[in-house]
Amino acid sequence: MDAGDILVQERIPLKGDETSGELASIASRIGARLLIDILETYRDGVPQGIPQREEQASYCHLLRKEDGLINWEEDAGKISRMIRAYLPWPRAYTLYRSRELYLLKGGVIPRNGNQGEIISDTLAQPDHPPKPGVVMGIDKRYGILIHTGRGYLYVEELQLKSKKSMNWRSFLNGQRDILGCRLGG
Predict the structure, then answer these.
(1) What CATH number has the domain bearing residue 169?
(2) Whose CA is closest to 52, among 112, 107, 2, 104?
(3) Does 112 have pLDDT greater than 70?
(4) pLDDT digits over 16-63, tens only?
(5) Are residues 29 and 104 both part of a single domain?
(6) Strand 135-139 and strand 99-108: pairing?
(7) Is pLDDT of 14 > 80?
(8) Residue 57 and residue 41: Cα distance in Å, rounded?
(9) What pTM does this model have?
(10) How far from each other are the two terminal CA atoms of the chain, in whole angstroms?
């Protein structure tokens, strides 16, 4: 999809919490400006390009809706990146009571540096390890806490299919039975 010499480029500094939609917006504004700049250089002749290095190229298949399905066996960091990568489309999702539940904003629960324990106000500590995908509780600072294959994911914003997106507190007001539920197929 991309070939030929590089005529102009600009680095975009990242914070690490951007979604693909936010990056597309930033890149489109920068790209429009750079396009005008490079077109103006054609008045003085054809600009000299820099050849692309094929050995550094990466490839990606076209995204499908199924790519957004969360595998709770994965680690919390990967699922967190998936939430950001698939927003606005196809959106990261799981099943909750046989309905699609989209996770729109969240991250990895930080660990306490001394004991490696989960920082939480209300996380239940079971006697045996929970299964991946189990909604463990809530944390007033982070939101809904979900056990993954490695670590805990917090969810701040979510949306049931055909409903409005909402913050975790509003969601819990109407879906109290999600606590203790195992998400997924």
Answers:
(1) 3.10.25.10
(2) 2
(3) no
(4) 999 999 999 999 999 999 999 999 998 888 889 999 988 888 888 999
(5) no
(6) unpaired
(7) yes
(8) 27
(9) 0.86
(10) 35
